[in-house]
């Protein structure tokens, strides 16, 4: 059972746990949010207290909906309003004990303002044939962050890098690597940043941090990382810490290189490093708002389904949710139950209906309740 609220409650002490935040953007956001709620509800049906979803009361803009304003001053104002509201929503949820928020796609400019303020990093573990790559994207500083100043015919964007944030990002990346690879083996740590533009400051900070931690960190220009990737590949258990300028573009290429599924089927997590956020994790689909599909029941739900499974398993007390969901997704793929973007002929609703029909959550011992359903896989 999911209890849904549209505003932050006055008395959180009466709210059953766990509580999951939900932030919805325009375009296909409302449809994606409905998928998330349905799948999370099914995955957590066995939770003794149910799950409460706290939905942000604001419908945030997509880039397309902002462009419809056709006025730069108005776009700037709405961008700032969305960023301020979403930041407050995340801070309020964290203060009241929420561990996770699911957010549909919103305008990138508003989003990166929030990521800067909350010191967010995006984390994605890519695996292929026994190899694994942990990608940690620094979203808290750099050229994607900052403020714009407008003068006639010109936009000036001001941003910054700092030693404190750099060390926080690298430290979190190392903690996450230890969590993903608990035996302690880490073959290589690579940082991909445009450090040549920073007067030697960033590489000095990284060298000092590496010395203090007693580890080797290879700091490269993005083009060098690309050349090494093409020429040598990457050793197993590589940790890449990267500025968004490279990682945003290369994420989809790394997914392809590691055979880790299409971008449209992928979800990722953003971890807030600001001390006041207590490590709040924001889950999102990798795909955007797809405004051209809004209201047509055609958006690919796979990434949202996977996000719901991660939230259920990590934050809603449902071990086995990810495995059960992946098993159901494999069955749908074998049966050709796909949306048109994947070459299928099924609607969003039909795909979700089919998934829920064959979803088999594990029992208390972690094994499927219906072993026949998995077809021996």
Automatic annotation (TrEMBL):
Domain Isopropylmalate dehydrogenase-like span(s) in chain numbering: 19-355
Entry keyword set: Amino-acid biosynthesis, Branched-chain amino acid biosynthesis, Leucine biosynthesis, Magnesium, Metal-binding, NAD, Oxidoreductase
Matching SMART domains: Iso_dh (SM01329)
Domain of life: Bacteria
UniProt-listed InterPro entries: IsoPropMal-DH-like_dom, Isopropylmalate_DH
Official protein name in the record: Isopropylmalate dehydrogenase-like domain-containing protein
Organism phylogeny: Bacteria, Bacillati, Actinomycetota, Actinomycetes, Kitasatosporales
């Amino acid at each position: 059972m999911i209890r849904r609220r549209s505003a932050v409650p006055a008395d959180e002490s009466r709210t059953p746990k766990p509580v999951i935040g939900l932030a919805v953007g325009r375009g296909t956001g409302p449809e994606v949010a409905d998928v998330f709620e349905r799948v999370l509800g099914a995955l957590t049906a066995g939770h003794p207290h149910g799950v409460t979803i706290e939905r942000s009361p604001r419908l945030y803009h997509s880039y397309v909906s902002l462009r419809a304003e056709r006025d730069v001053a108005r776009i700037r104002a709405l961008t700032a309003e969305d960023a301020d509201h979403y930041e407050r929503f995340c801070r309020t949820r964290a203060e009241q004990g929420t561990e996770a928020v699911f957010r549909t796609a919103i305008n990138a400019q508003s989003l990166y303002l929030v990521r800067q303020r909350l010191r967010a990093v995006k984390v994605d573990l890519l695996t292929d044939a026994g190899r694994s790559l942990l990608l940690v994207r620094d979203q808290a500083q750099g050229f994607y962050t900052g403020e714009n100043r407008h003068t006639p015919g010109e936009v000036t964007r001001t941003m910054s890098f700092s030693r404190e944030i750099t060390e926080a990002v690298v430290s979190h990346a190392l903690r996450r690597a230890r969590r993903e690879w608990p035996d302690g083996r880490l073959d290589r740590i690579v940082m991909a940043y445009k450090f040549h533009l920073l007067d030697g400051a960033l590489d000095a900070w990284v060298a000092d941090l590496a010395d203090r931690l007693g580890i080797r960190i290879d700091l490269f220009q993005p083009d060098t990382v690309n050349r090494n990737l093409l020429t040598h590949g990457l050793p197993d258990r590589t940790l890449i810490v990267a500025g968004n300028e490279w990682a945003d573009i290369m994420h989809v290429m790394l997914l392809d290189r590691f055979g880790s599924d299409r971008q449209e089927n992928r979800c990722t997590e953003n971890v807030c490093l600001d001390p006041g956020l207590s490590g709040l994790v924001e889950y999102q689909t990798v795909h955007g708002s797809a405004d051209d599909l809004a209201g047509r029941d055609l958006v690919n739900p796979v990434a949202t389904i996977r996000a719901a499974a991660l939230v259920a398993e990590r934050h809603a007390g449902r071990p086995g949710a990810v495995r059960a969901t992946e098993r159901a997704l494999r069955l749908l793929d074998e049966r050709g139950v796909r949306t048109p973007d994947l070459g299928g002929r099924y609607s969003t609703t039909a795909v979700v209906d089919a998934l829920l029909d064959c979803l088999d959550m594990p029992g208390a011992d972690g094994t499927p309740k219906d072993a026949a359903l998995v077809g021996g896989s």
